[in-house]
Amino acid sequence: MSDISPTPPSFRHLLGIEGLSAPDITEILDLSDKYVAQNRQVDKKRSILGGRTQINLFFETSTRTRTSFELAGKRLGADVINMTATASAIKKGETLIDTAATLNAMHPDTLVVRHPHSGAVALLSQKMDCSVINAGDGSHEHPTQALLDALTIRRRLGHLHGLTVAICGDILHSRVARSNIMLLGIMGAHVRAIAPPTLLPGQMDRMGVEVFHNMEEGLADADIVMMLRLQNERMNGAYVPSTREYYHFFGLDRAKLSKAKPEALIMHPGPMNRGVEIDSELADDISRSVIREQVEMGVAVRMAVLDLLSRHATNQPPIGPTDTLAGDGA
């Protein structure tokens, strides 16, 4: 594993897929591939981040993302500290800017942030001296999820260019969908969005996405079927009549999946609502489902991102939008 990446990246932060180039994405995926191999060995640790401090600051609860970032940092030798808003001064009324100033005074090397409001992570990056990684901000972006999804697909099918990827479900509230749409477009895949009109953002055509309101039509000859969680915590009002009716029309089952290619892969970022977004049998079908592989790829991708950002030059620009705190629109 020596000389994994001899050249530093051209970016200081990872705030989103927006702003990344195809070579940037390929570099991250290539390095991630090497970390997949390392993580399957008995000795999984390296010391590339020895002496460095990584703070995971989560304003929203998370199991997969926070745990994989923690594991990624520790496997690279970093000192990792987990902070949650419920156990910090933020709960007592401290502003985001004050929090940034407090953390900055501790001289961390990397700050991993998840926040319920779009643009909050970008705002923090403007106030911090260290590298900042977006672990999900509102309905805006979740860049490492899109990267791990891309790695999962590439390892199974060998490429991304020319594939037809159907993203199905609650696209309106999904930062995962937004990041995946951008990444897949950059890498030359054909993206379809399948959802009821109430769960689609406006102007999807501007993102180069083909829109369907019928699962059978949208899944026709698809290579990848990417299901999304119904994000009830972000919904103010009735977006679907009932979960039973939603599953009938937009939940993935054998009949609907039969419209896709025979070897089409099933993905889901988790956590899954079985019997709502996806049939339980399909979710566990190891011949079609790569949901567990996505979890494994998440650790490798986050190791690669932490590794690459540790090599940055301090005067390099961030990757992704750096606009100030915005609303929580998709």
Gist of the model:
This protein has 330 residues and is α/β, with parallel strands linked by helices. It contains eleven helices and nine strands. Strands 7-6-5-8-9 form a five-stranded parallel beta sheet. A four-stranded parallel beta sheet has the order 2-1-3-4, sandwiched between helices.
Q: How does this structure look, described?
A:
With 330 residues, the chain is an alpha/beta fold. 35% of the residues lie in helices and 14% in strands. The protein has eleven helices and nine strands. A five-stranded parallel sheet has the order 7-6-5-8-9. The protein has a four-stranded parallel sheet with strand order 2-1-3-4, with helices on both faces.
Q: Order of strands in the sheet with the most strands? A: 7-6-5-8-9
Task: Give the H and E element order.
Answer: HEHEHEHEHEHEEHEHHEHH
Terminal residue distance: 39 Å
Radius of gyration: 19 Å
What's the main sheet like? 5 strands, parallel
Fraction of helical residues: 25-40%
Mean pLDDT: 88
Number of helices: 11
Work out the number of β strands.
9
Q: Bin the strand percentage.
A: 5-15%
> How would you describe the shape?
globular
Structural class: alpha/beta
User: Which blocks of ≥5 consecutive residues have pLDDT under 50?
Assistant: 1-8, 313-330
Attribute tags:
disordered N terminus, 9 strands, 330 residues, single chain, alpha/beta, 5-stranded parallel β-sheet
